[in-house]
Amino acid sequence: AQSVTQLGSHVSVSEGALVLLRCNYSSSVPPYLFWYVQYPNQGLQLLLKYTSAATLVKGINDFEAEFKKSETSFHLTKPSAHMSDAAEYFCAVNNNDMRFGAGTRLTVKP
Amino acid sequence: NAGVTQTPKFQVLKTGQSMTLQCAQDMNHNSMYWYRQDPGMGLRLIYYSASEGTTDKGEVPNGYNVSRLNKREFSLRLESAAPSQTSVYFCASRTGGGLDVKFFGPGTRLTVL
C-alpha cells in the first residue's frame, strides 16, 4: 500500500523567508511523487512531479522538491516566500492510483 | 478550453435526498476521477473511469454511484444523502499517458443536513 504523510498541518513564514513543507512517503515500489497547490475556493494545480528522472525537481513559481530515497522524503522548498504563495499544499504518491496527504496550509506574514 | 467544469458549485440537501453532481472536460482526456476533500484528510478517491465505458471504485465508494456518459462527462450520484457526505467534491481528468492527475475542476461544496 502507498501513502504520504505531511508533517505539519499549518506552516507560517515571513515574506522573503525560506519555505519548507515536509512530505514522507510509503510505497512498496519506486514511487511517483507530486506536489499540488490549492488556492482558496479553487481546485488543485500541479506544482511539480518526480517520476524517477532527476532527484531534484523544479516546479512553477520557484518551488522545488528533492526526492531522497534513504529518507523516504519529498520535501517542498522555495528560497523566498511571497504573499501570493499563501495556499494549501498537498503531497501525493501515485503508482496504481493517487493518494494524497492531508495537506499543509501555508501562511505568509508581511 | 474551459478545462474541467463542475455543476453545481454549491448544494444543500436534506438527509435521504438524492442528487447528481455533473462533471465535464473538453480536453479529450481518457481518464476521469471523483474525489472528496475533508479537513485534515486531503483528497480521497471515490470512483474513477480509465476510459469511456469503464468505471472502478476508489478508496471511499460507499454511498455513491457514477456514470461515464461519454468521453467528456462523468457524473457522481448520491442516491440517499447522509450527513457524512458533507464535503467538497472535485472532479479531475488526465490524458492516458503519464501518471499525474493534472486538471481539477473548481469543486462542488455539498452540505447534507
How would you sum up this structure, described in words?
The complex is a heterodimer of chains A (110) and B (113). Chain A is mainly beta. Chain A has strands spanning 3-7, 10-14, 19-26, 33-38, 44-50, 56-58, 64-68, 73-78, 87-94, 98-100, 104-109. Chain A is built from no helices and eleven strands. Chain A is globular and about 40 Å long. The N and C termini of chain A lie far apart (41 Å). The mean pLDDT of chain A is 91. By secondary structure, chain B is mostly beta strands. Chain B is 0% helix and 50% strand. Chain B has no helices and eleven strands. In chain B, the strands form two sheets. In chain B, strands 2, 4, 5, 6, 9, 10 and 11 form a seven-stranded mixed β-sheet that branches. Chain B starts with a strand and ends with a strand. At the A-B interface, strand 5 and strand 10 of A face strand 5 of B.
Tell me the overall shape of chain B: globular
Question: Over the alpha carbons, how many angstroms does the gyration radius of chain B reach?
Answer: 13 Å
DSSP strand tally of chain A = 11
User: Radius of gyration of chain A over alpha carbons?
Assistant: 13 Å
Biggest interface reads: A-B, 21 and 21 residues
Q: Sheet with the most strands of chain B? A: 7 strands, mixed
Question: Can you count the beta strands of chain B?
Answer: 11
Strand content of chain A: over 45%
